[in-house]
Amino acid sequence: MEFPISRSIGARFEYLPEAGSTNDVLVTRATGPDAGAWPDLSVIVTDNQTGGRGRLGRVWMAPSGKSLAISVLLRPRLASGPLPVNRFGWFPLLAGAAMTLAVRAVVDAAAPGGTDGEEAPRHEVTLKWPNDVLIDGYKVSGVLSELLPDASGLCIGTGVNLALDEHDLPTLTSTSLLLVTGSVPDPDAVLAAYLTSLSSLVAKFLEHGADPDASGLRAEVSELCGTLGSAVRVELPGGNDLVGTAVGLDTDGRLIVEDQTNGELQAVAAGDVTHLRY
Ligand code: BTN
Fold it and tell me: The BPL/LPL catalytic domain covers which part of the protein (predicted)?
């Protein structure tokens, strides 16, 4: 891959040749003595993250030079002032939606044209609630969103597997853009597509008072989200499992699941979702 990334994207953009966790770096800077120098939509990126953290206390593994770790700072505001923390629930979903669009663009651009009028098989790029990006059911990207300690904003960290080969994959359910398309993607293009989509989705959300319906984002994100309409098992943070059908996203970005045992609707704020194939 061609690094370092030369293009400057975001309100403040820094490429680090190496970082432990880009989220840790960004949170430390955005809350430190120089916090004023880190405005809304500041970005830190590396292709060599040595201590990546994942959701639910997991480790995020990424071999050097083969993936991107991107952290974006959000300090969301409405015309009336800062957006209250209890309305931050949609931002992690918007990050997943933005990366879904970026990955789709790469995968679609690489699709070989059909010969003799035959359509080449298309890959399915979808969002798995809350913010994993799957290609044909295999994970290519994940997001870890963390509240700043003073609750003045949010750090959205996204990892995307660009050039991992089959020996590098951290789990049996992972994939990379190289494995799907057969060529190493341009990291700059993936980054630019992701940041462009994320900033426009966030702007749209805030312009409409952080209302997922007025902004049209409930419909837009639902369209990308392969979890909706699927039979799912959700491992809830307390250790219990919820099995049922995912039927929607609520106003706070929670997943609404119809419990198969009693037909009741449950709103899930956090958990690990598996799509069940019966
Ligand atoms: C997950 O799927 O569990 C989330 C993975 C999030 C990884 C990203 S890479 C950039 C940022 N820095 C981290 O330490 N984690 C996130």
Answer: 8-206
